[in-house]
Amino acid sequence: MTVTGHAQGATRTQSPGKPATVPAPATAFHGETTPWWRDAVIYQVYIRSFADGNGDGVGDLLGIRTRLPYLRALGVDAVWITPFYASPMADGGYDVAEHREVDPLFGTLGDAEALISEAHRHGIRIIVDIVPNHTSAAHRWFREAVEAAPADAARERYIFREGRGEHGELPPNDWESVFGGPAWTRIAERHGEPGEWYLHLFDPAQPDLNWWHPEVRAEHEQILRFWLDRGVDGFRIDVAHGMIKAEGLPDAGFTNQIQMLGSTVLPYFDQDEVHEIHRRWREILDEYPGERIAVAEAWAPSLERLAAYVRPDELHQAFNFHFLGTPWQRDELRTVIDDSLRTSSLVGAPTTWVLSNHDIRRHVTRYGGGESGLRRARAAALMMLALPGSAYLYQGEELGLEEVLDLPAELLRDPQRLRSADGSSGRDGCRVPLPWGGSESPYNFTPMNIANGWLPAPQQWREKTVEAQWDDAASTLGLYRRALKLRRELPALGDGRLDWPEDTEVLLGDAEDLLVFHRAPGFVCTVNVGAKPVTIRRPGALEIASVDLDAPASSDTVVLPPDSTAWWSAR
Ligand code: GLC
User: Fold this and answer.
1) Which of 276, 270, 156, 269 has the alpha carbon at shortest distance from 221?
2) What is the pLDDT averaged over residues 313-332?
3) Which ligand 1 atom sits nearest the alpha carbon of residue 134?
4) How far, in Å, is the centroid of ligand 1 from the Cα of 439?
5) Closest to 560 (Cα-Cα) out of 292, 32, 539, 571
6) Nearest atom, ligand 1, residue 416 CA
7) Nearest atom within ligand 1 for CA of residue 91
């Protein structure tokens, strides 16, 4: 890949939808037709918490720009940035009031354009979020809808219904919000009388759109083009399994519906007709030069149903949440890896591995926290990076960060926590601003620590900062840097297939907690997921290990410590 200079279009104003000039092709990548995404390592930036450029305590576009050299040195291929559009921030920006405007909290449209072109100069592609299932309640369409009379056409862009019960006092059906409570809120009509209900699968500040309305479809196609014209390399599609609701909005028929998300088709998620939308979006992506991609955030009830999102005429990638949710257990890991590769290869797509994101407890904590959680997290990351396909990293996992579980209640902002029945769940703990350097919070998250970060970072993070780990090869950051470098260098890694060798090839005795896979040419990955050391025949020259591993060439055997992964170049 050659990264050459970048032709930037003339400076544009902040006004939505109207570039002052027709944008020039925004990147050197866009002449390329390589399917770069099939094995890309893509780094998720949760913008509020990555880096603050203007000193207001909240991460922003300028902050990302200043940290591009870090991302390049880390060795990622692309960055996915969570929403930075105009928003009242009821859900950290996933409540979008206008997709073509940048929220002043995060910068300007000019900052977004500068970031895209500068990232390209660093050889990094940019993926932006699109949130099609719902808008913010502050969106002009929703304000119009609420002000209109019940039968007015302005209500048809959303999902308004009369309530059940004698006086319409009950929600229209039994659907539940992902954030807790009913998925319906009743509005007051123009003269203050109780009126219709509207659907919101998330927060009441995020009304669901009616995707059978032609204007809703046309608007989103224009939004895609708006950002493609500005040079983005792709989209992460929020709630890509949403949008279409079962005809007639039938009851689900049971409670705690969201817990069934991973195993049952609910009447409001993963409906077959959603694929028409993705097919249309693929056509639009393919109209643009270069390989512009889309990745689905789709919570599908099975790997088979997930694979439908990455059929050749649909999206390129879909996060593999089945893998993310698999416990650190040999047989379960092997099954999910096999099933993932099998189902995605049936449609010719790669698998897209992920261990953490901004909605889920950080995997160090999921794996038990503390030292053993970190050991497993390091082993899991090294295993993931050796699997065939693409991988997403969540900011801070390369530093070995844990979930912050003791944030002061008055600082929490996540609507999921605010709506949850027991008040205990919430996603702020994985969204604490990143520690870059120095010895106290906010650890250079803001320039020269001039302000506090929007959430405080714990004391223990002073040893976890980028600065503290950068030159330490044994640190988690050192491990990620070396693994990403090797992933580019070793021809076996990235896209392709894997094989499980006969156990007898490497095993010396009983090793029920060991996973071993081969990738051609000449690569072996060993993963000991157990609590006991395992002795094996040394598979070759050690390339990297998630622990300190003694594997001298003079010895035919090697002891794999508990919770460890190693990469070997086969003899
Ligand atoms: C997705 C986002 C999450 C957000 C929700 C509603 O699941 O990842 O952060 O709250 O959609 O937009």
Assistant:
1) 276
2) 97
3) 12
4) 33
5) 539
6) 10
7) 10
Cα(239) to centroid(ligand 1), Å: 7
**How many Å lie between the centroid of ligand 1 and the Cα of residue 10?**
34
**492-496: long-range contacts at Cβ-Cβ below 8 A with a sequence spacing of 24 or more?**
492/519, 492/520, 492/521, 492/522, 492/523, 493/39, 493/385, 493/386, 493/519, 493/523, 494/38, 494/39, 494/388, 495/35, 495/38, 495/39, 495/350, 495/388, 495/389, 496/388, 496/520
Expressed in angstroms and rounded, the spacing between residue 130 Cα and the centre of ligand 1 is 11
Q: Which atom of ligand 1 is nearest to the CA of 203?
A: 6
Cis upstream peptide for 521 (omega within 30°): yes
Q: Which of 215, 229, 219, 218 is nearest to 18 (CA)?
A: 229
Q: Which residues, in sequence order, are CB contacts of 338 under 8 Å at separation 6+?
A: none
Contact (CB, 8 A) for 534 and 559: yes
Contact 483, 490 (CB under 8 A): no
User: How far, in Å, from the CA of 150 to the mean position of ligand 1?
Assistant: 29
Q: How far apart are alpha carbons 250 and 298 in whole angstroms?
A: 21
pLDDT in tens, 364-411: 999 999 999 999 999 999 999 999 999 999 999 999 999 999 999 899
- Whole-Å CA distances, 253 to 175, 259, 301: 9, 14, 17
Nearest Cα neighbor of 530 from 560, 558, 557, 555 is 560
Question: Ligand 1: which of 178, 201, 202 to mutate, judged by most atoms within 8 Å of the beta carbon?
Answer: 202
Range in 22-36, 156-170, 517-531 with the lowest mean pLDDT: 22-36
- Three-state SS at 196: strand
Q: Which residues line ligand 1 (CB under 6 A)?
A: 91, 94, 131, 202, 238-239, 297, 358-359
Contact yes or no for 411/373 (Cβ under 8 A): no
Pocket test for ligand 1, best of 94, 177, 425 (most atoms within 8 A of CB): 94
User: CB burial class (10 A; 0-12, 13-18, 19+) of residue 2?
Assistant: exposed
Is the pLDDT at 510 greater than 90? The verdict is no
In terms of Cα–Cα distance, which of 468, 460, 398 is closest to 438?
A: 468
pLDDT of residue 311: 98
Catalytic site residue from 98, 238, 297, 414: 238
Spatial distance between the Cα atoms of 93 and 37, rounded to a whole number of angstroms? 26
CA separation for the pair 289, 229 (Å, rounded): 10
pLDDT of residue 162: 98
User: How far does CA 421 lie from the centroid of its chain?
Assistant: 26
Nearest Cα residue to atom 9 of ligand 1: 359
The single-letter code of the amino acid at 286 is: D
Distance 135 CA to ligand 1 centre (A): 12
Is 103 a residue of the active site? no
Per-residue pLDDT tens digits for 267-317: 999 999 999 999 999 999 999 999 999 999 999 999 999 999 999 999 999
User: Which tokens sit at 321?
Assistant: 């949440």
Residue 495 is among the residues annotated as catalytic for this protein = no
Q: Pick the atom of ligand 1 nearest to 131's CA.
A: 12
For residue 13, what pLDDT is reported? 34
422: confidence class by pLDDT, cuts 50, 70, 90? low
